[in-house]
Specification:
Elements lengths: L28 H16 L4 E3 L9 E4 L16 E11 L3 E6 L9 E6 L1 E7 L5 E7 H14 L10
Antiparallel strand pairs: 1-2, 2-3, 3-6, 4-5, 6-7
This protein binds ligand K3U and zinc ion (ZN).
The site of ligand K3U has 20 residues, from strand 1, strand 4 and helix 2.
């Protein structure tokens, strides 16, 4: 499906606080098409996540799709999870330092401190409310993507 352009560091869209998806938008063709275009764009750029502001849509939608990779060889293989209006309800006290990269900050990698596990409340594309716990690399991706919804880039958090 559609591959979208990805905003790069320095573009204002990446620094905005994204708007919540309105109830009327759930189950809409618009939201479905946005999610599938985000997934296609993420896969094309071989990412493990992506946030709507990165494709110039300032709305609170993220995709999380962990897979084993060079840096995290034992990362779980996950089907892409679409999270609408995600909120982190709990952060573990335990944190881990781990390498991150970003499709909006090419050619840069860095060590970021993140909570080892988190409890997230989010809506599915159909508006169903989900509450899930994530650990390790998937938890890291969720925190990285929710940062994008709040105008934060991983380079702002380099240790
Ligand atoms: O697949 C990537 C490319 S960067 C990436 O997939 C970002 C997600 C991400 C990678 C690594 C840690 C946390 C989040 C995607 C972004 F920028 F749209 F959010 C990768 C980079 C470093 C470590 C492991 C994997
Ligand atoms: Zn990023």
């Amino acid at each position: 499906s559609v591959i979208l352009p990805v905003a790069q560091r320095g573009e204002d869209i990446l620094r905005l606080k994204a708007a919540r998806v309105a109830d009327a938008e759930f189950n809409s063709d618009w939201l479905m098409q946005l999610a599938s275009a985000m997934i296609a764009t993420m896969l094309e750029r071989s990412g493990v996540g992506i946030a709507a502001p990165q494709v110039y849509i300032s709305k609170r939608v993220i995709i999380v799709a962990s897979r084993p990779n060079l840096r995290y060889p034992d990362a779980p293989e996950m089907d892409a999870v679409v999270m609408v209006n995600p909120e982190i309800l709990e952060f573990s006290q335990a944190t881990t330092l781990g390498e991150e990269g970003c499709l909006s900050v090419p050619n840069e990698r860095g060590q970021v401190q993140r909570a080892q596990s988190i409890k997230v409340l989010y809506h599915t594309l159909t508006g169903e409310v989900m509450e899930s716990t994530f650990e390790g690399f998937p938890a890291r991706i969720v925190q990285h993507e929710i940062d994008h919804l709040n105008g934060i880039l991983f380079v702002d958090r380099l240790s």
